[in-house]
Amino acid sequence: MSLERLPNDATPEQVTAKVAERLAARLSVAVATVVARRGSAPSSPGQKLALWREAGRSEVMGTVGGGAVEFAVIQQLKRQLDERNPEVRVHTFQLGPNLGMCCGGSADVLIEPFNLKQQVLLIGAGHVGLRTATLLAELDFEVVLSDEREGAHDAQRLAKATEAGVSIVAHAHDDPELLALLGPPRAAALLVATHDHQLDQEVIEWALRHRFAYVGGVGSKRKAIRTSERLSAKGVASSDIDRVRMPVGLPVGARSPMEIAVAIAAELVAWRAERTKRRSRSETTAPAKLSDRTEAPSESLVHE
How many Cβ atoms from other residues are within 10 Å of residue 256's Cβ? Predict the structure, then answer.
């Protein structure tokens, strides 16, 4: 048996402090705490071990007694980070032949997953943007919706989105205060659905510069080609241009704002699931090229 990295020694207090630090950096963490010991076992109540993934590899800190029982706990922590809806529960580890140990005792270990919601920044609170933000929040994404137009912030108009848990702000896309609301852009998704083609272009360029993990834009295939051409003319690397998803959304023949929102949400759900599978190997996935995307609804329907 082997581990990517051996656990770093730390006291339970140091583990707790590190967990708070990693959560503040918007990294999901799983924590194991020994809550009981019976018979002969290396584990002691109060011992803690934390695992998180950073830069494509697992980092481990603390101990729950070492040896085979610690290896088994670490594997359980990894599984918890890969679950979409993990549960807090106590696992009993029998220190017998199954673990290659002859202690004969057992240890009860509390496994606590702290899986953060996938963040999405959506620029543009028009018909499509508002419906998409609301639907994504209902699908357990953490959504920030920004539109600097004064007329976009009528309380009654935004009521459903607010009730769903969408954070609604009035910042320009390049306002530093907007980024301050997010974790690292490399872990977040960016969607743009504004009323203005030039603004859409500026937002996409800004998102690529900040290395958002996912960059998607509402529009037609014709608009996607123009966007690609403009990015290329500005010297944007082809690898970055290929990261832009436009037309964003699964090709389900969507026409109305709600149908478009469903198509976009479906693609984000698929991307989130695939990203969860790949977290242990990479922080990003490779999207289709702009020119390869399926035709989207006409621009008259998707620009607001």
Answer: 13
